[in-house]
Each structure stands twice: as structure tokens, then as C-alpha cells.
Fold:
Amino acid sequence: MNTEENSLKVYELKEVCELLKINLQVLRRYIKNGEIKASKIGRKYIITEAHLKEFLEKNEVKAEK
Structure:
């Protein structure tokens, strides 16, 4: 039984591009360089919500003191 808490949210590359406001070539380069994790299902790549959050946290800008 999936609850909203345990459900797996996945995004297609186009959706991630829209969320991050980047183009597809940039996202594909991030995937190729291992900067963001993706899975290939058939011919399509998907990115889980967890991997998207991980990418955003790794690229978080820290405040200078």
C-alpha cells in the first residue's frame, strides 16, 4: 500500500528542465558528468525526486561570513 509519504515521484527530463529553467542539453551534460543521477527506462531517462533534491543540495550556495 503506497501512502503519499512512501510513493516514488519521478520526473521526465523535460519536466526537470522546466523546473530548473535550463535547456535539455545542459541537463543531459549534468547526467553524463554524474552531477545528477538518472535512470534509463527503455528509451527514456527519469530522475527521482530524491535525486533532484540531492542535486539541489549539492549545488546550494553557502553564505559567506
User: Anything to note?
Assistant: DSSP finds three helices and three strands in the chain. The mean pLDDT is 90.
